[in-house]
Amino acid sequence: MNTRLPEQLRIAIEHETGKIERRALRRAVAELTELYQARDHSTPILPSEAHRAAYLAVRLPATYAACRRVFEEIRRLAPEARTTSVLDLGAGPGTALWAAADAFPNAGQATAVDCDAAWLKLAKRLAAEGPYPLLAQAQWRAGDLVREENYPQHDLVIVSYALGELSPSDREALVRRAWNSAAQFLVIVEAGTPRGFSSVHSARETLIAACAKILAPCPNRLACPMAAAGDWCHFSQRVERTSLHRQLKGATLAYEDEKFSYLVASRDYASSGLARLVRHPHKNPGHVQLRLCSAGQIEARTVARSQKEAYKLARRAEWGETWKGPPLP
């Protein structure tokens, strides 16, 4: 399923980018792309208004899509949970808060923390255009994620595309503080690269040591078989490109695929134990090949047409989903 930005956010972004002369905006987009590639997709410090506008146009939609997909997993796996407050650490322009506001309509309290005053000022302007109570009532706080000792408790704590900026020791300290502030869920999202997955995997080990339950994407709390094999666990979410996005990137396709790694830790909800598809299924005539993470190992399974119900489910299965069919031989 494609993810589309909320209409109010799309319009607000067009208003912000319209303040920048188009040639300068194109140049900033090119420079932003180089910065991301040099840093393996971790979020760089953006030096100017033009670079921040470029981020809104070409990176925010993908970040929004990844976060929105992860929040939908929480809704699916813990449908009875009530998420009424959100803490976003490293909030940037408030991207994850927009996604949380859309996913959790009962949420009405939010705190957003970022060290960049320019981002917070921009985030407030964007939030003022939104229809969500969560955004309208959000508290925007300047703060250093490394040096702050404590954060207020919220039902959902988010650290998205921020761990990759930190040293291993600072990363572990932030994860511990974020977990202490999570009344229900801690969500970590990073780029779907080896470096991004490394940050997520390290956070997973820290959280398991702190007795956190792992809700997604892992089927259990066993050692990660992807990391053991030198592979990286990541998923993909398709996001619709706006016309502005296509123009600035010189793109012809109406969509792009955001690769991301993530983790959802919980106080009360553990994984269902169902295997998860960790790559695109190969759907061939008469059989489907699946790659599943299950019971602490990666397994390749072939589902033949003769397996009837399992085959029907396999034909509909998508990368990142849990396997809802019968156990496979």
Brief synopsis:
This protein is an alpha/beta fold and 329 residues long. The protein has helices spanning 7-17, 22-38, 49-58, 60-77, 95-103, 117-127, 133-136, 168-181, 194-209, 225-228, 243-249, 309-316, and strands at residues 85-89, 109-114, 139-142, 154-160, 182-191, 213-216, 235-240, 255-266, 276-277, 282-284, 287-294, 297-304.
Radius of gyration: 20 Å
What structural class do helix, strand and pairing data support?
Answer: alpha/beta
DSSP helical segment count: 12
Which ranges are low-confidence, i.e. pLDDT below 50, for 5 or more consecutive residues? none
Molecular structure report:
- Helices cover 39% and strands 23% of the residues.
- The radius of gyration is 20 Å and the shape is globular.
- By secondary structure, the chain is of the alpha/beta class.
- The chain contains twelve helices and twelve strands.
- The relative contact order is 0.13.
Topology:
Elements: H1 7-17, H2 22-38, H3 49-58, H4 60-77, E1 85-89, H5 95-103, E2 109-114, H6 117-127, H7 133-136, E3 139-142, E4 154-160, H8 168-181, E5 182-191, H9 194-209, E6 213-216, H10 225-228, E7 235-240, H11 243-249, E8 255-266, E9 276-277, E10 282-284, E11 287-294, E12 297-304, H12 309-316
Parallel strand pairs: 1-2, 1-4, 2-3, 4-5
Antiparallel strand pairs: 5-8, 6-8, 7-8, 9-11, 10-11, 11-12
Helix pairs in contact: 1-3, 2-3, 4-5, 8-9
Q: What key attributes describe this structure?
A:
single chain, 329 residues, alpha/beta, 12 helices
